[in-house]
């Protein structure tokens, strides 16, 4: 452990201690400012950082520690060398213990600085410190916690401020007074973290490690959801290891397919058993929440531009603008008498609808804005931002319903956890309780029914506020839209539900909401636009000079922009950006006015002007870049946005460049940091010079669950990076000015390059480029439509090859591999010659990576189950290709030698038990059913259908697998393929008699989770598993080999399938008798 010591000259030393040598020390708890403001490990070691704002925290902590008789203290910003991933991992996993062992914890509230103790005490609960993720353990772990203002004034201790802390955190007094945390349920501890934020998405889970006394490896880049999946898995495994015997006693007394956590089904064996039933109910609820969540659920919300500081205040505080009537939005929110419980915000394209919806969501104060309507009820709130350019779920009714349910059930779990089973459709609760970790799929009808039941349950104690942005971005026919509108009005019929909606003013929405309170955004944002124009232009040093010496002309320029805007914020943003560029290029106020007069008032005409301004020598490149940006992958839920690095291979000149004769990929161009920086810088410059601001590069930063997006910068247009570079200020993304060279891009490592993404400046830019005449122009410049799918898979194979050669990049490489495999598995690629050749090239690097790296804790979604089981199944790229349905590759490589020499899981089993069962309706990739072509191929190579796998056989596993699928509701569309596979196996000599133990084994592999097949980690006993599959089947009188256990005739097992297979069973039984004569 590394501690700080304040020297007599005011400087700081870092002293390292090991084991029991650690002396008494104080520890600081605070909220981080901007990274550039905090004193780092390097700053302290070289004696720098005195000019940083964060230095005052070190001075405060050091002096306070000395006053308390302590020579040493610890501050996270500079006591951890964050350049070392190993040290960072150790520190985060040790953090709770370090705070727990400290003599005193000083909480430095940098946002509390008013005078007077009474005022401090009243406002301490408003501090942002209580809303940060890491401060939760910093509040609970230490023995002594004292709170101080920004000036270092003592406010009080955790004990003296107990009431204020309880108000701010909703944490019970027992926990705050030091009761051991394991005495509180997992649900309760999770509820303490609700609403807290972290800079990095994954930290929302990592900051809870100490609260639950578990450890997991850190995988920054995996995302919030996957980090929580691993956290819950670790908590679950910890519970199982501690309480296996208690839970075994419970499960042995509970019969039926859904014994876990069903209300009223618990047996009072002991208080400990009851606790375990509640813990398993928590796991079941988490499985349901996982099934509702999807990648990108909150992506659009965080991608929406934040409001300019000072704008939109009137929407929640109408007293700031007396022009608003009493029917304002704020009045509607609070009124208990309002019978029209839908509020509609409409506006032209680009008027700022999504921005104001984000502002409402982030600035709504509970319960202030909703009282007296919400009365003393618990307020439940959920929001959704439709996104037409996004995935199918992001622009669908199902995506909306899943998002709303995910948020509302999460909140219900915190406030009334025992009510959750009552609101879930019974079939879904049963599926979640099932021992085998099957993927849970929701129909729209089930989602609507569940949401209706949930709202009904909340009526007695809750008020519900829903915020839904972008109804016009919903995909589908008019009937889909009309059905959604009817459902929204049905929800709003309840007095405890209010809904705020936004959309473009289409006729359908005008008709639907004509009697609802509403306003047109462009009619009420004149003052906001003026504020935005002034703030943006005044941020430039040269314009501030103009304001000082040419105030009249400068103000006229700003007024003209405002007057011509017609309420369209996007037009204003584009104009201001263009004028800032001209200011930096030296234009004076006269030239700026002339330039403004050349800009069309109509937004689409302005976009066409920008498009036409692309230099002729750049139009071919621009066409390809814009087509890549317009590409939507509807065949699988992509986890990858368009990265700046994806565009760095355009110089190759063709889509399938990896297979061209003249192309040779040099991985050093990406693995060496200087080369990578040059590559990214060149690509950014190409983007800026070719696309004239229609596309922009964004820095996916920190500060929200899915990250926030900041404009990286633009060489030609006014953006944050170029502004600071030319104004002589340090950029958070660029180099400081003391470097001899100037790059637009900071020095990233390859695994960090994915924080640079490319997207349209606004959805309206995309809509413009999708018009038929612009599409024609784009295709003319690229000699026909550019094959974006092929280009991206080539580009990402190159990135994978480079990543696989770097240390500590295994998880990033696997994440990318999932995308590559999904791309190669799409219908247009999986049977092509090019697809097979690319798979061969990719497969060699993939196997090399898997031979040299540990496969544990992969975070990639589609590939997760295959990777997690890689070592136990002795997998290869061939088996991975079978999992993903790379048909052309498998045909070329499924040879007798590879089949017969395969160790671990037999090739035949991969073919019969697909990795993506029942997924055909949901994704168009992967092996979703037995492949009859490959089945016949391996059987003709001499593979026996009764081949052993562990303590069972491939044939027995297939029968059990099929029985489980039928029990979980296998669609009749799949049945013919499984019948054919059964027939092929039977004709090849599959056994007519099987031991009971072979028919009791687990068989399923979840898409997002893997458990060892023969290591029974579930609480369902093999006896129960057998009964679920083969109820009422009597054992045969014959025996199987030397087996002493009961055996069962396959003819009898087949009879179990008759309700679904019908007369096909008779034919299968006939073939079985013929094959076993």
From TrEMBL:
Ranges of residues in domain NACHT: 341-505
InterPro entries documented for this protein: DUF7791, HET, NACHT_NTPase, NPHP3-like_N, P-loop_NTPase
UniProt keyword list: Repeat
Matching PANTHER family: HET DOMAIN-CONTAINING PROTEIN, NACHT DOMAIN-CONTAINING PROTEIN
Protein known as: NACHT domain-containing protein
Organism: Curvularia kusanoi
Organism lineage: Eukaryota, Fungi, Dikarya, Ascomycota, Pezizomycotina
């Amino acid at each position: 452990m590394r501690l700080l010591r304040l020297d007599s000259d005011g400087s700081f030393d870092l002293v390292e201690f090991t084991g029991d040598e650690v002396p008494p020390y104080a520890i600081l708890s605070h909220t981080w400012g901007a990274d550039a403001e905090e004193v780092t490990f390097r700053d302290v070691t070289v004696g720098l950082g005195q000019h940083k704002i964060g230095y005052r925290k070190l001075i405060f902590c050091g002096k306070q520690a000395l006053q308390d008789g302590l020579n040493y203290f610890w501050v996270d910003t500079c006591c951890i060398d964050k350049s070392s991933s190993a040290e960072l991992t150790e520190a985060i996993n040790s953090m709770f213990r370090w705070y727990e062992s400290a003599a005193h914890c000083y909480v430095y509230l940098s946002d509390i600085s008013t005078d007077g103790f009474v005022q401090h005490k009243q406002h301490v609960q408003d501090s942002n410190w209580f809303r940060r993720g890491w401060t939760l353990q910093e509040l609970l772990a230490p023995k002594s916690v004292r709170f101080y203002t920004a000036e270092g004034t003592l406010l009080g201790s955790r004990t003296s401020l107990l009431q204020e802390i309880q108000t701010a955190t909703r944490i019970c007094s027992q926990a705050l007074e030091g009761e051991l945390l394991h005495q509180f349920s997992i649900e309760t501890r999770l509820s303490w973290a609700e609403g807290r934020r972290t800079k990095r998405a994954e930290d929302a889970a990592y900051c809870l490690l100490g609260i639950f006394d578990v450890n997991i490896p850190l995988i920054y880049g995996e995302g919030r959801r996957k980090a929580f999946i691993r956290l819950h898995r670790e908590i679950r495994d910890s519970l199982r290891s501690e309480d296996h015997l208690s839970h075994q006693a419970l499960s042995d007394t509970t019969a039926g397919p859904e014994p876990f956590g069903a209300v009223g089904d618990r047996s009072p064996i002991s208080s400990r058993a009851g606790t375990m039933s509640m813990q398993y109910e928590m796991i079941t609820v988490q499985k349901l929440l996982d099934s509702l969540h999807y990648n990108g659920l909150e992506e659009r919300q965080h991608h929406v531009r934040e409001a300019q500081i000072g704008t939109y205040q009137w929407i929640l505080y109408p007293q700031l603008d007396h022009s608003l009537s009493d029917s304002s939005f704020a009045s509607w929110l609070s009124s208990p008498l309002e019978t029209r419980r839908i509020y509609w915000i409409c506006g032209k394209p680009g008027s700022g609808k999504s921005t104001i919806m984000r502002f409402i969501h982030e600035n709504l104060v509970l319960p202030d804005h909703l009282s007296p309507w919400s009365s003393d009820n618990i307020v439940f709130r959920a929001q959704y931002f439709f996104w037409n350019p996004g995935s199918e779920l992001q622009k669908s009714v199902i995506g909306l319903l899943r998002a709303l349910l995910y948020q509302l059930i999460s909140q219900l779990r915190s406030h009334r956890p025992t009510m959750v089973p009552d609101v879930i459709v019974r079939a879904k609760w049963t599926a979640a309780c099932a021992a085998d970790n099957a993927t849970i799929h929701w129909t729209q009808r089930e989602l609507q029914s569940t949401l209706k039941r949930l709202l009904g349950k909340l009526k007695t104690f809750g008020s519900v506020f829903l915020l839904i942005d972008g109804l016009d971005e919903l995909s589908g026919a008019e009937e889909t839209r009309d059905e959604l509108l009817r459902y929204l009005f049905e929800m709003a019929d309840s007095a405890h539900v209010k809904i705020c909606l936004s959309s473009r003013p289409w006729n359908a929405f005008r008709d639907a909401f004509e009697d609802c309170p509403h306003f047109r955004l462009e009619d009420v944002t004149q003052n906001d636009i003026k504020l935005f124009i002034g703030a943006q232009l005044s941020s430039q040093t040269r314009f501030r000079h103009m304001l000082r010496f040419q105030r009249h002309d400068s103000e006229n320029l700003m007024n003209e922009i405002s007057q011509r805007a017609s309420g369209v914020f996007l037009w204003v943003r584009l104009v201001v950006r263009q004028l800032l560029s001209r200011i930096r290029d030296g234009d004076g106020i006269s030239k700026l006015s002339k330039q403004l007069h050349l800009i069309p008032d109509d937004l689409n005409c302005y976009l066409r002007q920008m498009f036409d301004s692309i230099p002729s020598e750049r139009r071919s490149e621009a066409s390809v870049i814009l087509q890549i940006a317009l590409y939507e992958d509807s065949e699988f839920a992509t986890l990858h946005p368009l990265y700046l690095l994806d565009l760095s291979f355009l110089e190759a000149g063709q889509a399938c460049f990896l297979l061209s004769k003249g192309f040779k990929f040099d991985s050093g161009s990406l693995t060496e940091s200087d080369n990578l920086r040059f590559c990214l810088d060149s690509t950014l410059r190409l983007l800026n010079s070719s696309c004239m601001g229609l596309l922009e590069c964004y820095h996916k930063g920190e500060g929200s669950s899915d990250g926030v997006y900041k404009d990286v910068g633009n060489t030609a247009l006014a953006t944050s990076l170029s502004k600071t570079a030319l104004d002589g200020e340090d950029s958070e993304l660029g180099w400081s000015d003391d470097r001899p060279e100037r790059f637009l891009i900071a020095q990233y490592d390859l695994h960090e390059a994915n924080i640079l993404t490319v997207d349209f400046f606004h959805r309206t830019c995309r809509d413009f480029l999708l018009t038929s005449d612009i599409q024609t122009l784009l295709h003319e410049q690229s000699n026909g439509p550019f094959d974006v799918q092929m280009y991206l898979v080539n580009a990402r194979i190159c990135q994978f090859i480079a990543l696989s050669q770097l240390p500590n990049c295994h998880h990033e490489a696997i994440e990318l591999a999932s995308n590559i495999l999904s791309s190669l598995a799409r219908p247009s690629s999986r049977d092509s010659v090019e697809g097979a050749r690319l798979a061969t090239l990719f497969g060699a690097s993939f196997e090399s990576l898997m031979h040299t790296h540990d496969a544990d804790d992969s975070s990639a979604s589609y590939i997760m189950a295959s990777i997690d089981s890689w070592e136990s199944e002795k997998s290869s790229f061939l088996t991975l290709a079978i999992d993903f349905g790379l048909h052309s590759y498998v045909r070329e490589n499924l040879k007798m030698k590879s089949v017969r020499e395969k160790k671990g899981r037999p090739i035949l089993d991969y073919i019969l038990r697909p990795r993506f069962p029942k997924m055909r309706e949901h994704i168009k990739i992967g092996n979703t059913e037995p492949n009859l072509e490959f089945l016949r191929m391996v059987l003709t190579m001499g593979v026996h259908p009764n081949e052993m796998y562990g303590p069972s056989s491939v044939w027995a596993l297939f029968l059990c697998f099929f029985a489980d699928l039928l029990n979980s509701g296998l669609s009749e569309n799949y049945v013919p393929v499984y019948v054919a596979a059964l027939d092929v196996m039977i004709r090849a000599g599959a056994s007519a008699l099987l031991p009971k133990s072979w028919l009791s084994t687990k068989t399923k592999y979840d898409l997002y989770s893997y458990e060892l097949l023969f290591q029974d980690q579930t609480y369902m006993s093999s006896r129960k598993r057998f009964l679920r599959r083969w109820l009422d089947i009597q054992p045969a009188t014959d025996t199987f080999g030397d087996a002493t256990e009961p055996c069962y005739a396959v003819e009898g097992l087949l009879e179990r399938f008759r309700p679904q297979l019908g007369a096909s069973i008779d034919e299968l039984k006939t073939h079985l008798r013929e094959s076993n004569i």
